[in-house]
Amino acid sequence: MAEQVTLPRLGQGMESGTIVRWLKAEGDEVEKGEPLYELDTDKVTQEVEADVGGVLLKILVSEGEVPVGTPVAFLGEAGEDVPAVSAGAEPARSDGEPEPPPAPEQPEARHGPEAPDGGEQRTEPSEPASAQSAEGRVSAEGRIKASPLARRIARERHIDLASLKGTGPEGRIVAEDVERATVAGPPRAPARAAPGAVERVELTSLRKTVARRMTEAWTAPAFQISMSADMSRAQELRARLVERHPDERPTVTDVLTKVCAAALMRHREVNALYAGDAVELHPTANVGIAVATDRGLLVPVIAGCESLTTAQIAAARADLVARARDGKLQADDLEGGTFTISNLGMYGVEQFVAVLNPPQAAILAVGGIEERPVAAAGELVVRPMMTMTLTCDHRTIDGATAADFLRTVKEFLEEPGLAL
Q: Which of these, 262, 205, 304, 199, lies nearest to 417 by C-alpha position?
């Protein structure tokens, strides 16, 4: 009997994904564990492997957004009959209630020219209002057809799904439709023409996710504190590590990651996640490293940094950064972070404030190392100094707790032996 292939849940909270392209064609032999298609989630684009082997008998969804659990293909023996399942059919309901039948196909309403902001200006319809309603998006019982992710975004942003035109299969409203409505807002008068053409770059799923998460983070009651550390000993340590581990070539970020992990174990209140009515204190330092990519900002996680050597952290970091920039990260690479480091020192940035990475309680922004005059033993000397700024969620961390943690990080950088 042909095996049904459904869209998997690749991470906690995943409600849908977008099939980018199939790596196999109908009629191809597929081995168990072999990449079958590329799936774009709100975090990464990754290859989905076949759970079973066989022949790819039928592709039900060639591309586009699909809810988790939806049938997308069939695998089986060559020549085997394929059950009748419509492309992109919704997964069965958990409560056993049958899906309402779709409404009869309605004639599509006419639209005017594209508005300057990317929305559509509608002309007065010539058809009766009943023939215009929802354009196939509403079932006979009045249920609007929309993906779970689209429903969640609409709920968060107080958008009426009935006011949107779906672009998914059979008029289904997908996440991009809700995002487009949020960006477009109410119709505006055309802008005055200006010399040159305006380039419109549509947001990718990742960029939309970054925008949504940063907006969520900005609503948290956050505060920042800063300290500067003398990096003389840390740079000496890094130079010796490079000599001993030329293949890994540890960086200042790797030393900082190890130091922060040690500090997090001493200040577990900072190694925490905000969980609404509770604070989760985690036993291991799972440090996320912010990585800039062509697709947007990603934060892959190095788990258990407190038990890794700096060289091991360097190897893990190099692998994650390379795969992040090549678009090869897996969903698991981005899960489970308890603390984040964002280093812009290599860009010549002296100091900056990083936005929280919710639900994490804190994120450390690191500037570049630069020679500065400082007072030491009553004399003016020049030392390599680095400024760190810790952004904290005040719902989880108080100022004194944050200051104690950052002071410990400073002490460990200035005397790495204290971290042992």
A: 262
What pTM was estimated for this model as a whole?
Answer: 0.64
Alpha carbon distance 281, 283 (integer Å): 7
Q: What are phi and psi of 43, to 5 degrees?
A: -120, -45
CA–CA separation, 406 and 297 (whole Å): 25
Residue at token pair 């799904």:
161
Count the neighbouring beta carbons within 10 Å of the beta carbon of residue 118. Answer: 11
Amino acid letter at 109? A
Counting Cβ atoms within 10 Å, is residue 254 exposed (0-12), middle (13-18) or buried (19+)? buried
Strands 45-49 and 35-40 come out as: antiparallel
CA gap 397, 392 in Å, rounded: 6
CB distance 2 to 80 below 8 Å? yes
- Tell me the catalytic residues: 394
- Contacts of 405-408 with CB under 8 Å at 24 or more apart are 405/263, 405/264, 405/267, 405/269, 405/270, 405/362, 406/225, 406/227, 407/227, 408/263, 408/266, 408/267
The token pair at 47 is 């290859």
Span 35-71, pLDDT tens digits: 999 888 767 778 888 988 999 999 999 888 889 899 9
For 352-384, write each residue's pLDDT tens digit: 999 999 999 999 999 999 999 999 889 999 999
